Every structure is written in C-alpha cells, then in structure tokens.
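Hi, here's the filled form for the chain we discussed.

Project: internal
Contact: R.S.
Residues: 139
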Amino acid sequence: ASSYNNIGDIYRSQGDYSSALDYHHKSLHLNYKTHGYSPHPHIAASFNNIGTVYQSHGNCSSALDYHRSSLDIILKFYGDSPHPDIASSYNNIGIVYQSQGDYSSALKCYWRSRDLLQSSELSQTHPLYAMVMSNLGSG
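And the returned structure, exactly as it came back:
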C-alpha cells in the first residue's frame, strides 16, 4: 500500500492525475484489506492523498469530500487527543477552502489546526507547524 501511495504521489507531481488516482485507490484498497473498515490512520492517509490529487486537479468538491472523510477517520481513531494528524487534516481542508475563495472557512480550519499543534507534542519548529502558520498568514 505504501509503494502504491508513493507511485501515486509521483504521478500527481507530474500532473498525471488519472494515474495518481488509480494508484492511491489501489493503496486504499490494500489498506482496507489490511485494517478492515475500522478507523485507521493508513486508511485516513489514503483518503487524504486522493483528496490532494483532486485538489491538484482543481476538483475542490471531491477534494473536500475526501479530506473530510480522512478527518472523520482520524477523529474516530485518535478521539479528543491533539494529534498532529488531526491538525494536518484541518490544514488540508483549509487549503481547499482557500482555493475556492472561502477565506473565512479556511481561516477557521487553519486556526483549529494551529491550536491542535500547540497542544500536541510537536515543537513550533516542525515543518507542519510552519506550514499552518504560513497558511494563516496567506488566508
């Protein structure tokens, strides 16, 4: 599943969104075979990666659907803990909102992400924290 995911990332970076989606769906399928249909971070990551491909392709509606599904899975897995994966999901949703011009919703997501990161074990020098702060500045 990890290899399929990596291949999907390469295709996305090359702009071959169809192939990227194909490989990310293969990764998702294998993650379901491995972890079942219970909430698991690897399944959430597959949903996130598919959302990122749709975002790169300009399909914001599908991107939001997949990023929200990823967030739902992550929240079920980690519960109320301030985990960086939850913060990352909020950040990704914010990116989609920002690309749609919905700056109010984007900022809400970025602030939520920042708050979670400040409560997590990550330091303020972590790249995710820097990304969220940069997004806050641009949103």
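Let me know if anything looks off before we file it.
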